[in-house]
Design goal:
By secondary structure, the chain is an alpha+beta fold. It contains two helices and six strands, in the order αβββαβββ. The chain has a single domain, classed as Trna Endonuclease, Chain: A, domain 1 (3-Layer(aba) Sandwich), CATH 3.40.1350. The termini are far apart.
Length: 106
C-alpha cells in the first residue's frame, strides 16, 4: 500500500498537470525521478518552458535551495522558468523562485 504523503503528492502533481494542459501546455510528469522537477511544461506558441517542483505544503528553505542549485546548473537559464508550486489555505500558489506570480483555486 502506498504512503499517504506519496499519494497526496502524486494527486497534486496530476491536478497541476491537468491545469497546465488546459492552458495548452504539453506537460510531462517526472514521477519517481527524485530530480529537482516534478513537472516539465512547454507551451509551443508562447515559447514558455516551466520546470516545476510541486509540494502539498509550503516548501522548506532546503527545498528552495535545491531548486536554486538546479537553476544554477543550467547554462541558458533565462530560457526556463523555475517554479515552486504548493498548496496554502486552499489555494495553489506558483512562485518563480521566491516571487509569487499566480494563485489559483483548482
Amino acid at each position: 500500500m502506498a504512503n499517504k504523503y506519496y499519494v497526496s503528492g502524486a494527486n497534486f502533481e496530476r491536478r497541476l498537470k491537468k491545469y497546465f494542459e488546459n492552458k495548452d501546455y504539453y506537460v510531462a510528469r517526472t514521477a519517481g525521478s527524485h530530480g529537482p522537477f516534478d513537472l516539465i511544461a512547454i507551451h509551443h506558441e508562447l515559447n514558455d518552458i516551466l520546470l516545476i517542483q510541486c509540494k502539498i505544503r509550503p516548501p522548506l528553505k532546503a527545498e528552495y535551495d535545491k531548486l536554486r542549485t538546479a537553476q544554477a546548473e543550467f547554462k541558458n537559464k533565462e530560457q526556463f522558468k523555475f517554479i515552486m508550486a504548493y498548496k496554502v489555505k486552499g489555494k495553489f500558489r506558483f512562485e518563480l523562485l521566491d516571487k509569487v506570480f499566480l494563485e489559483v483555486i483548482l
